[in-house]
């Protein structure tokens, strides 16, 4: 392939633009905020799970409190009914039975109220736990939002840089022959640098020195020949000093 030496030198500008693009794309993939978001998301999930556990425990205990309240209320109603029967003039046998039942109801009410008090204290502690879990979840969600905003801000800046670099690259490629750009892009698609300056006997793309035979072949090539590094395959851009 042939190309004017001045045109070939423009490949160095293209390689520089691609190197900058690669750096920007690498920074996008390796933003510290990405790992931080992963950690924050895991924390949010953990806090949500903790809140579900706390709310479930509180709900179960709350139902138990209401059950005990209903039982106490039923005992009180039964007590009031017995007292009403006694006041209505029950027989001696009925009075004896009612008094015995009232004693039983009093003991039952005492047991239920003690149990109710204990469960209510437990519920109060669990309610505090639910409140703390909700606060912890809110804090975790706020941290996640904060790091997401930092990521979005960083990505916005990188996207602007990438768009600018891509415009610069497009301007360079439009000024180059299509065949030369196609060769450059094929080399670049394999990874590594697609064009580098020949510096003495060293390839500017892979930084490896050419052996004597390869170097002589490069130097003997015509100025407009497009030559390539035998080590990495990159296009070797030559100047007057290294011909």
Automatic annotation (TrEMBL):
InterPro entries: CT398_CC_hairpin, Oxidative_Scav/Glycosyltrans, Zf-RING_7. The keyword Coiled coil applies. Pfam families: CT398_CC (PF24481), Zn_ribbon_9 (PF02591). Residues 14-192 form the CT398-like coiled coil hairpin domain. It comes from the Bacteria. Residues 37-157 form a coiled coil. Residues 202-236 form the C4-type zinc ribbon domain. The keyword Coiled coil applies. Gene3D superfamilies: 1.10.287.1490. Keywords: Coiled coil. This is C4-type zinc ribbon domain-containing protein. It comes from Saccharopolyspora kobensis. The lineage of its organism: Bacteria, Bacillati, Actinomycetota, Actinomycetes, Pseudonocardiales.
């Amino acid at each position: 392939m042939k190309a004017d030496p001045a045109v070939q030198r423009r490949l160095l500008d293209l390689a520089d633009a691609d190197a900058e693009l690669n750096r920007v794309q690498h920074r996008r993939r390796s933003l510290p905020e990405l790992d931080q978001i992963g950690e924050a998301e895991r924390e949010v999930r953990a806090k949500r799970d903790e809140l579900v556990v706390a709310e479930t425990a509180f709900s179960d205990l709350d139902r138990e409190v209401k059950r005990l309240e209903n039982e106490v209320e039923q005992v009180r109603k039964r007590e009031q009914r017995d007292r009403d029967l006694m006041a209505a003039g029950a027989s001696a046998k009925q009075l004896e039975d009612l008094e015995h039942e009232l004693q039983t109801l009093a003991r039952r009410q005492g047991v239920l109220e003690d149990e109710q008090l204990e469960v209510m204290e437990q519920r109060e502690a669990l309610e505090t736990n639910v409140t703390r879990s909700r606060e912890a979840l809110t804090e975790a969600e706020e941290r996640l939002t904060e790091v997401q905003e930092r990521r979005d801000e960083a990505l916005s800046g990188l996207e602007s840089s990438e768009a600018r670099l891509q415009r610069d690259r497009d301007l360079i490629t439009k000024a180059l022959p299509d065949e030369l750009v196609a060769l450059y892009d094929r080399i670049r698609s394999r990874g590594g640098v697609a064009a580098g300056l020949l510096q003495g006997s060293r390839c500017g793309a892979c930084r490896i020195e050419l052996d004597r035979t390869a170097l002589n072949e490069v130097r003997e090539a015509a100025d407009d020949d497009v030559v390539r590094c035998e080590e990495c395959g990159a296009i070797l851009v030559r100047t007057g000093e290294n011909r």
